[in-house]
Amino acid sequence: MSSKALSSIPVLYEDNHVIVVIKPVNVPTQEDDSHDPDLLTLIKQDLKHRHQKPGNVYLGLVHRLDRPVGGVMVFAKTSKAASRLSDAVRTRAIRKRYIAVIHGKPKQEQATLRNYLLKNTKTNMVSVVSSSVAGAKEAILDYQVIGHREGHTLVSVELHTGRPHQIRVQFAAIGCPLIGDQRYGAHLTKPGQQIALWSTELGFEHPTTKEALSFSSKPPQAAFPWSLFEL
Questions:
Q1: Integer Cα distance of 184 and 182 in angstroms
Q2: Residue 228 belongs to some domain of the structure
Q3: pLDDT recorded at residue 4
Q4: Which domain holds residue 60?
Q5: Residue 159 belongs to a domain with what CATH number?
Q6: pLDDT at 36 over 90
Q7: Domain count, the chain
């Protein structure tokens, strides 16, 4: 196991098959229309430089985080690892836990949220729809309230499906949008405010050794609204 810094991107673990990093906020996971530096390219460039590899470097993207969201991510360094990790994502064998700060307080201290979501590719917006709508996909998460302060609630979220904008849309649907969500809580959000969503824990079986691996990360505790709570 190794732990080092890839320029401004902390590396939690790296071997010949996988690399686990902490994604900085406001960095795209992969190249988008903004053409800003993206995490996939930055890691590829670093691997090429550190290992002095000629030609293209392989790096497999097996899951994503929205651009404004930070926290733990794993990338595959071989096609075999990518295939096995992608299968683990598809079969929900990867454990993904997030923390978020939401407006208000949910009616229940802990619950499972189940919705059907539909993405509008033109607007990049996701809506809660009926299960009968063509293209709708089931979204499931469990949440538990950790704390409540000044009208804000800290929740722990276990994600069972990885739909686009899932956590953001599902909490907005129960009247508790995430703090700083410019898309699904705009009426409560100040312009430029950072979304309070963080990938805090990632657990998976190593694609070749089968060892159970788990990694964790905390959001910047000095920043609002994380600063309201003991993390």
A1: 6
A2: no
A3: 45
A4: 4-220
A5: 3.30.2350.10
A6: no
A7: 1
